[in-house]
Design goal:
- The complex is a heterodimer.
- Chain A is an alpha+beta fold.
- In chain A, about 50% of the residues lie in helices and about 20% in strands.
- In chain A, strand 5 and strand 6 form a beta hairpin.
- In chain B, strand 2 and strand 3 form a beta hairpin.
- The longest helix of chain B has about 40 residues.
- The radius of gyration of chain B is 30 Å and the shape is elongated.
- The termini of chain B are far apart.
- The chains are: A alpha+beta, B alpha+beta.
- At the A-B interface, helix 2, helix 3, strand 1 and helix 4 of A face helix 1, helix 2, helix 3, helix 5 and strand 9 of B.
């Protein structure tokens, strides 16, 4: 009997303690200074701060460049050579818009449909190159720092579309058949790695679907966007 | 006598059990506190949240100020270019050409008729399907281009000729900036053609809905703003071919 009583007392005491603790926590939570925030939302906020500061740094960089550009313009302008300054700017903008022929170190990539036989459960579509494959390869090349790109001689610009039309593809409104040739200017090693390295999309195309990809590092010339 | 001994023995055992329990609970509590401290940098969660909040606010203010400064610099540049004694015919033509190319590159904010494609997915899931399959966005942009879009933006990022998408530490980056769901793609062009290209049977939106569970809503807009590309395009390997 005595033992049971002690146990009961203990339980009551413990629950009281627990309740008090809860009440204290709740009242604290009501104070403005102690708004309840989960660890997860704090982590998310930390992420946000990191992103924002990254973007701020980029903007600072842009501002500095703009400032330099303006100063440069001012000095040249003060020297009375306005037309030359404008011509120079125009050339630069044309280059950035893709309206000049460019040359430099880079890679030439040749893509050909798979020659292997269909396996059970496979669709013939799996073994041919699609517009989507080329889109992803182009994106991977840009990530690897490609400065200029062309597909079968058509310069890739912001408005370029790549359309699958059966066995051929249409780039900038022009139709091309196999093989598809992508040219890219940039660091040749990095560009090559972008399509051949073990984790790349190009590697999946090659190993899984036996799409043939050949990469040649050399000096390339990329023609302007002609529209 | 023997009975009493047994009783006290039991009591001792009970006490011992109680002691062990307390020790275990104590260790548990201190571990909890330690872990929480590690996560929050030895501050309470709410304190940490407050500092982060102020930091975020500061950063946003700084960003706005920076945006303003850039706009001012650009304005000054434009004023200089359009200066009165600068309006000779040749120069005006050159200026017009520069404007034309800047528009093509995406260096100018543009507005006009077009469509807005809102993409919805179950965001309660831990990771976004769309972010992990960003090639869907590339395909969607490609389709918009095929339908004659003149300017395209995903959220606040302009699509230009150097635009790239990539995953970096579980985050999707476009033009090097973070792209967070919900994702809205906007395009300027002939609204009817663009809408038709989007709603094409078995087209890209159908694919997203059926294979990836991403829902889309296409809305035609009379007035749509597309932000400018705010990075500098630079060349280190490519040179202009001299003719």
């Amino acid at each position: 009997m005595y033992k049971k009583k002690v146990l009961k007392n203990n339980v009551i005491l413990m629950s009281l303690l627990f309740l008090t603790a809860l009440v204290v926590m709740q009242t604290k939570a009501m104070k403005d200074k102690y708004i309840y925030t989960g660890l997860q939302s704090v982590a998310a906020m930390g992420e946000d701060v990191a992103i924002q500061s990254q973007e701020l740094n980029k903007m600072i960089l842009l501002k500095e460049k703009k400032y330099e550009e303006l100063q440069d313009f001012k000095t040249k302008y003060a020297n009375g050579n306005q037309t030359a300054v404008l011509k120079e700017t125009l050339e630069k903008r044309k280059m950035q818009a893709g309206y000049t022929d460019l040359q430099g170190e880079g890679v030439v990539i040749k893509l050909e449909d798979s020659q292997r036989e269909l396996r059970e459960g496979e669709n013939p579509n799996d073994l041919v190159i699609h517009d989507q494959d080329i889109l992803i390869l182009l994106n991977d090349l840009k990530v690897a720092g490609a400065e200029a790109l062309s597909v079968n001689g058509q310069r890739i610009v912001g408005n370029t579309e790549i359309k699958c039309t059966g066995a051929t593809i249409k780039v900038n409104g022009f139709t091309y058949g196999q093989p598809f040739i992508i040219k890219a200017i940039g660091n040749p090693e990095q560009l090559e790695a972008a399509v051949l390295s073990p984790n790349s999309y190009g590697n999946i195309l090659q190993t899984l679907y036996r799409i043939q990809i050949q990469v040649e590092k050399k000096e390339v010339k990329i023609e302007r966007f002609a529209q | 006598m023997g009975n009493f001994d047994k009783n006290s023995e039991k009591k001792a055992i009970n006490r011992f059990i109680l002691l062990i329990c307390s020790v275990v609970i104590g260790i548990g509590i201190s571990m909890q506190i330690n872990i929480a401290e590690k996560y929050t940098g030895s501050k309470t969660t709410s304190q940490r949240a407050r500092t982060l909040q102020t930091e975020l606010k500061n950063l946003k203010e700084k960003r706005e100020a920076m945006e303003k400064e850039i706009a001012e610099l650009e304005h000054e540049m434009e004023e200089l270019r359009g200066d009165g004694n600068f309006q000779k015919d040749v120069e005006r033509q050159l200026q017009e050409q520069i404007d034309k190319y800047e528009k093509r590159i995406g260096y100018k904010k543009v507005s006009g008729k077009g469509i807005e494609v809102e993409l919805f997915e179950n965001l309660e899931a831990d990771s976004s399907v769309l972010v992990n399959n960003y090639e869907l966005l590339l395909a969607l942009i490609n389709k918009l281009n095929a339908a004659g879009a003149e300017a395209i933006a995903v959220n606040e990022e302009r699509y230009v000729l150097t635009t790239q998408m990539q995953m970096e530490g579980g985050v999707l980056k476009m033009n090097g900036n973070t792209l967070k769901p919900p994702i809205v793609v906007r395009a300027i062009g002939d609204a009817d053609t663009l809408e038709a290209a989007m709603n094409f049977r078995y087209g890209i939106l159908w694919e997203m809905r059926n294979y990836y569970g991403i829902d889309a809503k296409v809305t035609k807009r009379n007035e749509l703003d597309i932000p400018r590309y705010n990075q500098v395009i630079e060349y280190h390997y490519a040179k202009i071919v001299e003719e």
